[in-house]
Amino acid sequence: MLHIFIINPFAGHKTFADDLRTKLASIKNLNYFVFNTRYAGYETELVQKIQHIFEGEQLRFYCCGGSGTMRNMLNGFDDISKVEVAFFPCGLTNDFLKVFGSEEHRFHHIEELIYGDVIDVDYIRTEHGISLNTVSTGLDSNCLLKMNDFRILRLMNEDLPYTISTLYSIFVSNTYAYEVVLDGKVYSDKFAEIFIGNGCKFGGNMNFADTTCVNDGKAIYRLVGNRRGFPLLPALLAVTGKKYEKFDKYMRCGDCSSVLIRRADGSPFNINQDGDLIRNVTECNIQIVHKGLKLVVPKGVRAE
Fold first, then answer.
1. pTM for this one?
2. Burial category of 129 from C-beta neighbours within 10 Å (exposed 0-12, middle 13-18, buried 19 and up)
3. pLDDT at 93
4. How does DSSP classify residue 245?
5. Rounded to 10 degrees, what is the CA torsion of 74, 80, 83, 86?
6. How is domain 134-291 classified at the architecture level of CATH?
């Protein structure tokens, strides 16, 4: 087997990439190559080139970065079912790994993945690309959009663009009427947030489920009602505070295997796929691909 490590040197602490290279060099009989990303989205180009260079080889790809690095990597494969993929996390949140609960910490040890097990898990496919953890629109996509507008504020404080964009999304951004089709059932209303999750968390502190099954062919959905400003805060507190018993009061909850999202007036909107902003889509067709990804996990680890 050939082990391919794709490192985002901009994720994690400053010496992450060098430290990992040193660690790999100390592991005996490991047949591997290491590639650094150069810019956002370069992971996709790397994967496309590497799979053709090593055509016919059994390949295992390691995402050494965060959720965005993983999403970009997954979107480079010609046939994702033919490769093994490992997530060695060093991003800010690494949200998908939260489904492994108390065993999540084991993913931070590269040897655990090199000598780990392979399990089949679901992933999310849309006409806008693949994601592993979530697809959503509303409050969070507005926040991502505004973070780009406020990025100059990083000169004052690294976290300031996120804080300002979040407040803007809560108190200023409008809610819109959507048509959401969940396994053929139509819901038409104004929604502050539409969340479709293969995992159970995003954004580091947004908890939409205690845990979720990642190999049942279904995603969880949460449709947050028409709230903005201070009326939205109780729903946000329930999500950030893991008050799952209050969810039914603020949102429609359930699971599904297929979703269609579009604005009721036909206008374009933005979606968030694993932390990447996809702009100006007219609709989003979501399919959960049942056990379509071979994910490497530490030995004995399974989703809780």
1. 0.92
2. middle
3. 73
4. G
5. 30
6. Sandwich (2.60)
